[in-house]
Specification:
- This protein is mainly β and about 220 residues long.
- It has 2 domains: about 120 residues, Calycin beta-barrel core domain (Lipocalin, Beta Barrel), CATH 2.40.128; about 55 residues.
- About 10% of the residues lie in helices and about 40% in strands.
- The chain is built from 3 helices and 14 strands.
- The strands form 3 sheets. An 8-stranded antiparallel sheet has the order 1-2-3-4-5-6-7-8, with no helix packed on it. The protein has a 4-stranded antiparallel sheet with strand order 10-11-12-13, with no helix packed on it. A two-stranded antiparallel sheet has the order 9-14.
């Protein structure tokens, strides 16, 4: 008798990753630290650190967490205070003075209940979760911007999220990758390319020119 496969809910997956997870250490930012994101064709966006738990985004407060991907690459993640069920992730390159803003939006109940097959039939994206990428400068002067990349296509990478959770990703093209769980709560699961949509971004970790700044956080 064959048992029916059951997908693990995202919450259970997060619980599996959590114990002794390979998380980057939190980067502390001093109160008053601020970043202005200049985006072509729109008003500048302002982020101000109020304290170790709260920041201000365009004058509205939100909880936040920051990590340093490299000495001059800062990742700031926070709930969007201007939208429900939404988040913003800011990846700031302090050497090149640019940033990538990722606006994430969870679907409403009606969209979440629409299954993948129905979405395909209706010509909708495979996921109801929306992500929007915006490239910005950290000062008003013109300069290089981040961008999308195809450097991962064709690669097979293994990721160890914790002592018990290990996955393999296979990057297929600009929009899809496949994965399998090698160890952990989803061991044995393999996800076809139709289920995972994605975009690849290149984050420079060195600079061939321009002003080099010393981070004021640790």
């Amino acid at each position: 008798m064959t048992s029916e496969a059951v997908f693990i809910q995202v919450g259970a997956l997060a619980d599996g990753f959590a114990p002794h997870g390979n998380l980057l250490a939190t980067a502390s930012l001093p109160a008053g630290e601020n970043f202005t994101f200049y985006v072509a064709g729109s008003e500048p966006q302002q982020l101000v650190i109020e304290d170790e738990q709260t920041l201000s985004w365009n004058g509205k407060r939100a909880p936040w967490r920051a990590t340093a991907l490299r000495p001059d690459i800062l990742f700031i993640d926070f709930l969007d205070p201007e939208r429900d069920n939404a988040s913003i992730s800011a990846v700031c390159n302090l050497t090149q003075r640019n940033a990538t803003l990722v606006y994430g939006q969870l679907p409403d109940e009606a969209a979440a209940r629409l299954d993948a097959f129905s979405r395909v039939e209706q010509g909708l994206p495979l996921t109801a979760v929306d992500a929007r990428f915006v490239f910005a400068r950290l000062d008003a002067q013109p300069g290089p911007l981040p961008g999308f990349t195809d450097a991962l296509i064709g690669m097979r990478n293994q990721y160890t999220y914790s002592p018990t959770e290990r996955y393999e990703h296979i990057y297929l093209n600009d929009n899809f990758y496949a994965w399998q769980c090698l160890d952990g709560v989803e061991k044995g699961w393999r996800m076809s390319i139709a289920a995972i949509t994605c975009r690849w971004l290149r984050i420079s970790i060195c600079s061939s020119g321009g002003r080099k700044s010393s981070p004021r956080w640790g």
